Amino acid sequence: MRRQTPADVRADTAGRRPPGGRRPVRGRRGRITSLPVVIPLLFLLLLVTVCAAVAVGSVGVRPATVLDVVAHRLVGAGPPPAVMDDQIVWNLRLPRVLLAAVVGAGLAVVGVTLQATVRNPLADPYVLGVSAGAGLMAAVAITLGSAAVAGLSTSAAAFVGALAATAAVLGLSRRAGRVVPSRLVLAGVTLSYLFTGATSFVIFRGSNAEAAHSVLFWLLGSLSESSWSNLSLPAAAVLIVGLCLMPRTRTLNALAAGDDAALSLGVPVHRVRVRLLITASLLTGVLVAVSGGIGFVGLVVPHLVRLVVGPDHRRLLPTALLVGATYLVVADALSRVLVRPEELPIGIVTAVLGAPAFLWLLRRSEAS
Amino acid sequence: MRLSLSGVSVRIGSHPVVEGCDLTVGDGERVGLVGPNGSGKTSLLRTVHRALDPFAGRVALRGDDVKALGQREIARRAALVAQDSAPDFDFTVEEVVAMGRGPWLRTFESATGRAAAPIAAALERVRLADHRTRRLSTLSGGERQRALVARALAQESPLLLLDEPTNHLDVYAALELLELVRGLGRATLCVLHDLNLAAAYCDRLYVLHRGRIVADGPPAEVLHPDLVRTVFGVACTQLTHPVTGGPLLAFSPLPGGPLPAPAEGAGR
Q: Which PANTHER family match (chain B) (predicted)?
């Protein structure tokens, strides 16, 4: 191999170019970088998906009817729709589809945040034991009745479980007053196993087969309890957290670069990390309380989106939010129609739909 | 004085790693920090951005105790190229360099406005302008390290801290990087393992041994064979570099004699 001569070195003012040619600019392939184009398109896609998802189900409704009902309800436009259509679209399906969108958006946002905060690409909203804690309390509430959880509803019990798990994990992962990411992940995973074991024990000891079935359904995630009244809290939570995170995308980028680098870039890492973890856990708690443990969305949507728009959180966060929402709306629609008139737990659909899509994207990105 | 450490002691847990260190870096001065593995070089460097808080003593940037400065203000006064600090997620060169503007940007300000010029200048300075859109993982070790230096340059802080910047670099890339740093004319504190590189590129050296500074001064004085033997446990002769005229250390084989001969059939 030829070693560079001094003349080469002088000619090398633009990096080590191979002689006689400009090195092609690689690394752009497959990345979409124009946010003003992507966001409106994805938002439009979400709207179309929501409309389509409301139209499908055990009883089909024409998409035009969906729009009529919504238009009439919102602005009083057009003739009053048939009572049946109004009932199905406005009272049954729309709150459920919107809840799917809210939960999907929230899980994706939490996934993005946690993966940067703990610098672990395998982190998901449940890595802190949040869903396992919630699952245990939900299982107790369903199996032993609400008296066993101080009269709380299943959702409220799940939320309390989520908070308790978060507090335990944060407490266990502190060393010298600082939360250490590697300990955080280990403590979260360990406590998850503990809570999952306890949940299985509760189900196993409970003599009621029907209760066991409902616990299982809850654990795998379900949006069947949705209504307008339990949509507002998670929607507000996702909105607030999203708005709080948008100005902090640079901080997330710096955190992804490592603690020492982030400190040297002016980010007070330890304070910021605890705040982000608590925010993410609270949001996860709210989402898990209304939807059970919907897996895969928070883990895979951030990765999927990162493969397309890159890891910069200024693009990643808003894109993941919209993709997560759309993804869960589609998964929920499938969970309602695949085994009509029965309903599949949505967690099954998210995993079965998501895993192959993700593997395909992974292969494609490695090939480029 | 860009940086001054006075009586700094650092403990990790209850284990003392640095004891009573005094160190200064003046305007435009390139200062090297050398010492064996585990002597506390990185720990000392980490006190500047408060990744470690000293157990005793004071760390001051331009005269102000870092404890009294906000994290952003510290970042405006000192930039760091840490060891292995390439992000886990696959950012492009430009995105990495843009991170350097963080301490200066307002909350919603984008890195494409006012910040674009320093980013472009930093990329140009390290000769990576053509590689702007490449992902960091597709670069060579030398290019990656230059990208991280560009991030520190985009930070536009008057003091540059480098923690073993030539680690894993071949000799060309190592010289190229250190020449680049020399060309900046900026106050620099650089941890280096290679004593000859340290001698060639630093105005002044500090030698750290078991957590204490045992010598400081110009390389030719500091890298005395007696000191090298005490601190590193290696015998050497100080020669004069035939080209630069600076000090050059030639190391003797370890006292245990030559390494055992390769087994029969192995090697050439």
A: ABC TRANSPORTER ATP-BINDING PROTEIN, HEMIN IMPORT ATP-BINDING PROTEIN HMUV
